[in-house]
Amino acid sequence: MVLADREIRKVVLIDDSAIDNMIHKSLLQRNKFAEDIEAFDSSTDALAAILKLAKTDVRHASLPDFIFLDIAMPILDGYGFLDEFEKLDKKLKSGCAIVILTSSINPKDKEESLKRDSVTDFIIKPLTDKALSSLSN
């Protein structure tokens, strides 16, 4: 996937598994998918960081181009994150693609996720070279 014919600068990983974040960050780095990769093990922390950037960066230049989001997380799950993210300004959201990256094989999770305007893809873990390639084309 090409985001408005621009280079992918920033990616955010949101997963409560530190090991999954480490593996996926390593894969993203090895593939030179983005210049900046930030991992959060809490969706509430990730949301707070994104909201802070949205308020302080009027050009939205430091907001992520991609967010890889797990569904099953404590406190605020992926759907809760999406509910809050989708309240943001349309222009802000337009430059950010959310990819659900989950271990769920439940077809209902895929269906529910892809109903969301901000979700562009649904990938079952682990993230692979092939999946990354399809996202960047």
Describe the structure.
The chain has 137 residues and is of the alpha/beta class. It is built from 6 helices and 5 strands; from the N terminus they run E-H-E-H-E-H-H-E-H-E-H. The chain has one domain: Rossmann fold (3-Layer(aba) Sandwich). Helices cover 41% and strands 19% of the residues. The longest helix has 14 residues. The N and C termini lie close together (4 Å).
Number of strands: 5
- Strand composition percent: 15-25%
Largest sheet: 5 strands, parallel
Measured distance between first and last alpha carbons: 4 Å
CATH architecture type: 3-Layer(aba) Sandwich
Compressed to H and E, one letter per element, the order equals EHEHEHHEHEH
Low-confidence segments, ≥5 residues, pLDDT <50? none
CATH superfamily: Response regulator
List the helices and strands and how they pair.
Blueprint: E1 10-14, H1 18-30, E2 36-40, H2 43-56, E3 66-69, H3 78-85, H4 90-94, E4 97-102, H5 107-114, E5 119-124, H6 129-136
Parallel strand pairs: 1-2, 1-3, 3-4, 4-5
Q: Summarize this, please?
A:
This protein has six helices and five strands, in the order βαβαβααβαβα. With 137 residues, it is α/β, with parallel strands linked by helices.
